[in-house]
Automatic annotation (TrEMBL):
Name of the coding gene: CHRNA9
Membrane topology: Multi-pass membrane protein
Protein's organism: Denticeps clupeoides
Main location: membrane
InterPro entries per the UniProt record, alphabetical: Neur_chan_lig-bd, Neur_chan_lig-bd_sf, Neur_channel, Neuro-gated_channel_TM_sf, Neuro_actylchol_rec, Neurotrans-gated_channel_TM, Neurotransmitter_ion_chnl_CS, Nicotinic_acetylcholine_rcpt
GO cellular component, one term: acetylcholine-gated channel complex
Protein name: Cholinergic receptor nicotinic alpha 9 subunit
Domain Neurotransmitter-gated ion-channel transmembrane residues, every copy: 238-520
Amino acid sequence: EYNFCHVLCFSSLVLSADSAQGWYAQKLLNDLMENYSSALRPVEDTDKALNVTLQITLSQIKDMDERNQVLIAYLWIRQTWHDAYLKWDKEEYDGLEVIRIPSSLVWRPDIVLYNKADDDFSGPVDTNVVLRYNGEITWDAPAITKSSCVVDVAYFPFDSQQCNLTFGSWTYNGNQVDITMAMDSGDLSDFVENVEWECHGMPATKSVIMYGCCSDPYPDITYTVLLQRRSSFYIFNLLLPCFLISFLAPLGFYLPADSGEKVSLGVTVLLALTVFQLMVAESMPPSESVPLIGKYYIATMTMITASTALTIFIMNIHFCGAEAKPVPHWAKVLIIDYMSKIFFVYEVGENCASGQSQDDHHGHKHNQLHPHQAKHQHQTQKHQPKSNVKGPLGPGDQKDTGHARSHVQSEHNGVPSYLSHSNGCLKDPSKSYCPDEDKQDVALNFNHCMFCGRRGDHGIGLVSGADSELVRNVEYIASCFREQRANCAKGAEWKKVAKVMDRIFMWIFFVMVFLMSILIMGRAPSP
């Protein structure tokens, strides 16, 4: 019961003390505001300057608008000054040292952000001020500021920016209100990290400017916000896709010309890079400074345009037909013989170009007489008209036969080796030239077999006028096939030249893409 009484007595004393202190605070406020005016500068001597201490705390970077060159930041602004008319003796007010009153009741310095870029010209929030017994007033006010910032995007997305926040009095000169810095830099102890920007500091400098309109000095304090862009987002969303797409341009040279998609691939890659270029251009300010990523896009698009133009040129070479001129000798030596081995281009058009090997192969096959070919030759000889068949020649007929043979040989010098005559007919008449395997020789060998069928029973016959006309027809057919093979070989050579050039430019453009990426991205400044 005794302890309970002590507790009640202590509680009543505390309540009475609080009530007494509240009463003294009300009395103090009434006494201070009795003859006080918030419109005049609170100094006893008007010739003296009022010192205002400014401290800026950067809480958050809300946005950096590069296109409009505006920095949006959340700041805590602390201003401290002494009011000569707001002092009291704390002993007269029950030891009361500090009171908090609305800021609208006291005089406040008109310190504003000089480089403000907001349509709303309102100042900080009207929060309470902290008033001490010695006249010191501290005003802490939050503010969301929009300040103009000169954005340099030359090294985007590896750029760093320096945005200034300049504070000063709007109407008072330096002889009336002098601004001093509470710290050498802005306070970053409560800074909230931004997902796009890193803040590396906020140094402060004081400067005194003499304007042309007035002879009085105007001091101001400039806080420089040092920002470094976090480039990971742009690397994975803008640079890496461009780098991968640019490697598709050299692969267009590796695509076969007969596919018909070489030019389409180059145009598609060019359009894809154009889309990325437009995305970058929309976010950048329209200035003469081209961003680093923009230079990379332009260089890549130029390279792809050149590769597409070269692809069209090489496709014209690839599709050279029979009307084209033969491949020059220097091109055969340099490109077909030398460069093809360096770039590992083999067996292009060999089935058309290697006519000699195929002729040897056919000659080897023709040396063997198949049973159905011998039967066809026997039936042809059996059904020949009697007027065209000659019997065995006697000694007196050898002269005429030799004359006819020499006449035929003189008129048909261009007949192939397998149509040459021996002893009044074709050489080696026991061999047949009617193979079914080679389609190009069917017509020629058929006429050759027909010519062989005009021999006598003993394999020796005379060449009449009709036979001479037949030999000329056979020679014409043979020349047509020779010309066809020559055209095929010529086209194969041009195709090989085109493929070797494709392979050369493919490796050249691969090296260009790699070096271009290193040179351009190597210009990015180190953080």
